[in-house]
Amino acid sequence: MSESTSTLREPAPGPTGDGEPFLDVRDLRVHFPTDDGLVKSVDGLSFHVHRGKTLGIVGESGSGKSVTSMSVMGLHKQGTANISGQILVDGTDVVGSSPEIVRKMRGKRMAMIFQDPLSAMHPYYTVGNQIIEAYRIHNDVSKDRARQHAIEMLDRVGIPEPHQRVDSYPHQYSGGRRQRAMIAMALSCDPELLIADEPTTALDVTVQAQILDLIRDLQKEFHSAVIIITHDLGVVAELADDILVMYAGRSVEYGTADQIFNEPEHPYTWGLLGSMPRFDRVRSERLLPIPGSPPSLINVPKGCAFNPRCRFADLNGDLSTTERPELVDAGHNHLVACHLPPAKRRELWRDEIQPKL
Amino acid sequence: MITYIIRRLVAAIVLLFVVSAITFSIFYLVPRLAGATPESLATRYVGRAADVETVELTAERLGFYDPIWVQYGNWAKGVVVGTTYDMGAQDVECPAPCLGYSFITRQAVFPELMDRAPVTFALAIGASILWLITGVSIGVLSALKRGSFFDRFAMIFALAGVSMPIFWTGLMALAFFSYKFNITAPGGSYTPFTQNPAAWAYDLLLPWITLSLLFSAQYARLTRAGMLETMNEDYVRTARAKGLVEKRVVVKHGLRGALTPIVTIFGLDFGLLIGGAVLTERVFSLNGLGNYAVQGIFANDLPKILGVTLLAAVFVVMANLIVDILYAVVDPRVRTR
Amino acid sequence: MRNTRWRALGALAAVAALTLSACGGGDSGDGDGGDSGSSATPEFNAALSEVYNPSDKKGGIIKAAHSSDWDTLDPGETYYGFSWNFARLYGRSLLMFKAAPGDASNELVPDLAEDLGEPSDGGKTWTYKIREGVKYEDGTEVTAADVKYAVLRSTDKKTFPNGPAYFEQFLDLPKGWESVYKTPDLDTDQAIETPDDYTIVFHLKQPFAGFDYLAQLTQTMPIPQDKDSGAEYRNEIVSTGPYKFQDLQPGKGFKLVRNDQWDQSTDPNRKALPDGWDVQLNVNADDIDQRLQTGDLQVDLAGTGVQPAAMSQVLSDPAKKANVDNPTIARLWYTSINPTVKPFDNIDCRKAVMYAMDHKSYQTAYGGEFAGGDLATTILPPQIPGYEKFDLFQAGETGDLDKAKQALADCGQPDGFETAMAFRSDRPKEEATAEAFQQALDRVGIKVELKGYPAATYFSENCGLPPFVVKNNLGLCTNGWGADWNDGFGFLSQIVDSRVIRETGGSSNTSVRIPEVDKMLDAAVLELDDAKREADWAEIDKRVMEEAVVYPGVYAKSVLVRGQDLTNVFVNDSFGMYDYMSMGVQ
User: Fold this and answer.
1) Where are the transmembrane segments (chain B) (predicted)?
2) Predicted TM-score (pTM) above 0.80
């Protein structure tokens, strides 16, 4: 499709999948020059997703998750962000392509579900109108045909009485239905890549589960590649095939969901797990929040960016404060960026962390 | 929606009633409280050399000896059912709505207002179309190219436009375009639209441009601020994520969102303008409502002032009503709330 | 997108152009006559004492504008100088002031009448012969009965409250007389007789030597009874002059076109040069000045001169100044010193003001030598026949503080006192005058508090309302007066006769209450000998000045722009502006 397609490329190291991934992000760097200095929102990130698979990107706010998704969609305004690296969507490099090519890909090849459906949908247009618009950008069909399609989509995402609801405005929907409508809009052009940016954060807990179920069902149906971006490991626990843990614009741990939940090796991942409410077992102690706050992206701490908040940083001498740990394979395509020796990490997990969860 | 409009209309009528009572009091009661006598009020309507008898006669004829509420009642009655004025030589019928009768120019106020309203309407409509087009497009471009040379230039222009008084720009425009280069009509030119639309537009061109200069500057700033806000809204990002072309993102999603405050301000501006674009009409010697009001004030011709005030109030109230209705049209959230 | 950008650039270019033209405003359209073929050389004051650009050439339309509404075009009610000047284009009164530059215009000449009035019965009866062959625009001949009807009609103050009231004051109207509309069958011969179609006889209640002045009022312009529509007649005037009305739109304007029924042979006064007049009303005053200078307009009808904005422009640029005339007009700007307010009940305290005031600052307040006028020491301005030059107080141009202090001591207020001064707050010149008084009088310890009132109520509710004056301690009131016509009676009667002061307000006279002066006025009115009567006016002037109840400020002048392309232009002293009846256009 595009000249940037490489036939000889080798996927970046990572967990699941055989053959060519649908999305292949390599060494992505997104830097924003501001008056205060250079904000390195994403600084050397690589990951990939195959069709039919789900990747969860997890991290606190400000870790670069959303900037990553916006980069994949090609939504950063020209001139405001310095983007380097490659974002190969089915072989086409989003970073290097013209805005017009990327625009045509948006909505059709890759679509996005946003966090707050109330603000993400235009308050002045009906839900149907907005789905129809999305559909007709990429499909040369009559309005009636598009409207029919919109009603089908609403039906598919579980909106009752879609014939009537299609003419309602976003504010007339409940929160959960609004998100369903948003999903309908995103899926209206049958995209091969779906990015869900905190799709459930603004919703009630009970509704959250329904939406996640919906995404899972639809993924099976559409066989698309899905990225779920969240700060909540619980959201991706049952949905994701692979999980990428981000901290300060970089990947600190990247593995299968099984690896991340059952044998996590990065202290930050432990922290995330510790602060995740679990309903599947009786909890012995209080939640274990991660101390401190996310680092500034202008002055990222030297060495391991996580060192000021890491209980185990002093186990490495001064290594954690001087040298940035690389993301290396700890076995079975389980990538971890930590100075602690792998054996030590597993020991700490087994003896200190896991029992407390 | 219909009941809403009816309710608003009733409220508007009550409001107009109150406005008229207050205005009436300001012009007829306040001077009395300040020490004016019926005779001294009447001296405004007689010549320099009038004798006591003439003054008393006039005071009596104008009803200045009656209590203020009787005077107001008579006036209000005239508005509703019409009245008759004794003009000495003959009785003059003033049919409803009789907003009064000018004893200085010997004209009933209402027909005069109706005669002049088209001029003001023509001025206001033409100018507002101009300023909406220029103001909004300059504002949109400025917002999209924020910080660019165009943006800075446009905002300096906007500041200048807002700061320059219209009686100055108007006179300068006349001097330059009408008298030096003869490309626009001289002051005081007006041809009714029904007579010759081309001449009508030609005559009003300079007043339109001058008036719109002031407003387009305001609207450019307003639009720019609104666009800067809406272009950062999540729904604009959504529109882009759908793959919409940028022009459509800007116009259909961005501008549409930024338009609400503009519609509001526009409604009020337009209402006020219809009530009398005083300075513009004065500068260009257009015989509209604003100029009529000024003439009334200079001549201290109370029925005229009262008439224009009330008509202006009608327009402002109507503009408010229309804005509220437009608001519902523009923003569905208001409609169904 | 591109369109918008161009539009924006266009607007910006317009702004830039405006700025440029504002800076270089001096070089546009100085109008030196150029290619118009005129032989006259423009010169400052060229139309004051002689006719500028004399011509007998007919044709052309004179374009004129007025910055406000006409009071009324009805000759029976109009009461403005410019309107009386203009009315001669469409109406013929019995007499008129001679259409000539300089002093000559003070002379009365017959117009509709064949000669000046013939007094009899010691000035109690006045007889006029009317010209034969004078016709209305519809071809009907004008008769004495029409003049009688017009005069009687004007006495109806219920229908015409704004008009001059001289006729009802002097005519011996029968008891029960109300108006031509309400009492049409009442025999009015005791007031006006018309023994035949060409003779009209006025009978007065008392002798009045100056009746000829009343005969020149527009109220004697004939009106056909069957065409009279009362208050509406102002929009349906039937002409007797060389022009008649066309397209009259109240408040907006009208045209004058030639009246083919007017016969030059019956009219020794009018040349009727232009083919017509095009008059716009309610035109922005600053725009009028601008158009006068560019030649887009020839006449500013108000005749009071240019606005402050244009003043310095036309006076500082020699090319423009050459098109300016600076006549002194029969108007006095003065300040009333009210003896009803303590301590001005004491003449010495009044004199202290006369001495202490800085006269020059009065002139400055009014705009200086050209725009303001000449320093006045009398009540009568120089144009009024009978004017005598004198200066009773001899306080010099900036005041005499020693004399002022002496006067204060004589008054028993050696350290000064406090008083208030009223002015019309919407008149910046009067405000400046009040400030000048405040500063000048402060030099001798008289503290003046300034109080502004709206012009609209100034005489009816403030300075002209005697109880208000006393209550608010208004010792001083700025004032001004122009005569209805250039005659001692016309000038003095409304401002020095104590009997015009009304306790209910509305009089221009606020301070002159001298019984002796009232008697002198009554005597002068009876004097049929012009020279003796004129001497009487000067005596009255002196007598009032002795009482120190009036501080004369300046004899007003105006700065008139002579319209380009006008021919036969001159300032008619009796109106203090260009003579509209005589001018033509190239």
Assistant:
1) 9-30, 121-144, 156-179, 199-217, 257-279, 305-330
2) no
